[in-house]
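Work package 3, deliverable 3.1, input record:
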Amino acid sequence: MTFVPVNISPHSHVDQQSDLGKHQQADDVICVHDVSFAYDRRPALQHITLHVKRGSTLGIIGPNGGGKSTLMKLMLGVITPDSGSITVLGRKPHDACSDGSLVGYVPQRHVLDWSFPITVRQVVTLGLIGRKGMFGGFSREQKLQVQRTLAAVEMSKLADQPIGGLSGGQQQRVFIARALVNEPRILFLDEPTTGIDQAGQEKFLALLDTLKKQYGLTLVMVSHDLRSVVASCDRVACLSRNLHYHDRPQGLSSDVLFKVFQCDLDAVLDTHSGVHDGSCCGHDHGGGSETAYVPVPFAAPARKNNP
Amino acid sequence: MPHLFLAQIDTSMFYVARYLLMAGPMIGATCALLSVYVVLRRMALIAEGVSHAGFGGIAVAVLVGYFIPALDNDVAREIITGVFCLGTAMLMGYVTRRKRVSEDSAIGIFLVASVALGMLLLSVRRNLPASGRAIPVDVESLLFGSPAAISQSDAITAGITMLVVFATIGALYYQFLYTTLDEEMARINGVNTRLINTLLLAIISLVIVTSARMVGFLMITALTIIPGATANMLSRRFVGVLIASLIIGTGGTFGAVCFATVLPYDPGPLVVLTLFLIFAAVWAFRHFFKPRVVVEEDASAPSPPDHAHEHPGAFGHAHSH
């Protein structure tokens, strides 16, 4: 991974030129307004306001315990905020998600027992459970829909395999297929690249990009992997109980990352290539333009002697 | 010498034990179906807690029957016991959800408290004026079963229980499956998981109460765990696990009850030990030979690679925040 310096305007929550400064109700599919949430009086999120535009890809990053998954659960309607409001496609989050055709969710892989005796096809079919009656099975059309979705994620050949024999990347595809089988408009992904090797991550992000275009999706991705977020998202939200940044990834500065992660850029990115022009994290945070280091994804590794 | 043994068998023995022979396989089948969900949801300890709550519940029912003669009959006692079991199970879940007490601690506490309550209440009952009414139960039969006392009404009860359980799980098959597989996603996708969880606890309570007369509250849990655990080693497809569990539970119970009919031994321990031996045999076979003994839903499907993905061992699903 090569890092190039990018000159940006002074750090701000939302860039002056950014269209995120304006709340366009017609374009916004998710509106979070002044939301706070606490677990047993321990604050997890405080005064979060952000909106997600139709067709965009939002990456939510932050340290462990920063509230990333909590924000996602609030947007999914699994939990309700202590204060503030959230709407998803103009509805309450729980109503939007239970419909199935509006919102899809790809959870973290570790929450599932992968030794469960069930096939890939059955897992994906269960994603349609909200679309059938309380009693009875799935219709022929629904079964065909499952078949088409498995083809879209390139899992047709493994459709009748038990899920226990799948690789990490294949497991992730099963989750995506289960979320996409309802043809939702928004897709939430919780740590989608965790536990997948570099090559698998590249394939996965490429597949996600293809599916986004094919289904016309808006994506919201929670991740602690800054590289994959910067590589694949056109908007980034930095969360550590409060919202420290919400704009394009190019605008991320080292002082924002330091404030969010409480460590310098190198530690956050876990880089070993050390491509710098001399200035680095922990520099003077005074006014004026700052230099941010934005990873160029999938570039050839730089040689040690190169500046 | 088999011929001497066979010579001792009197077909009238089977007639005498006909209700046990009818009720046994039905109880075995019902418990076997339930055991798949108990095992896959890692609720074995909960089932153990509920079965011990049954001991406390029957003692409550006996005491209530003393003071309210209209409730001094088998049906009323079973209903009161069932309600007590369900209430205890829901209380265990409530305490655990508060997260101040771990699940295994909560179950352990309620389990011993139920047994202690049962012993205390039976002691209280023994010390009350008899008034011409004998205590309808005794401790040994409660704990280990009283198969000799299984009557026509017990066989009918076992049949009705089997129909109710099979019909409920069959009608809500996909809801039970999804909640068992991934409760949070099931809820997000619109499944009423609270209803499904309550139904499952109610089914566990019903099965334990109606089946305890055969094997006793101490051992009934074995029937709700062993068939499912054994079947889970035999198949990687859910329907395969269900079928295998039903075969093991029904066949094992029927075989043990038949043996108990001709041998002068209690059927309860025989049933449990038979199921245990089946489990041990399957485990040894899988462990030492590692063949792909699969009860296939689709015989033409290719065999998956033998990867062992062990769950971290939590009693419930862990979620990150």
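Residues 38 and 122 of chain B are 30 Å apart (CA to CA).
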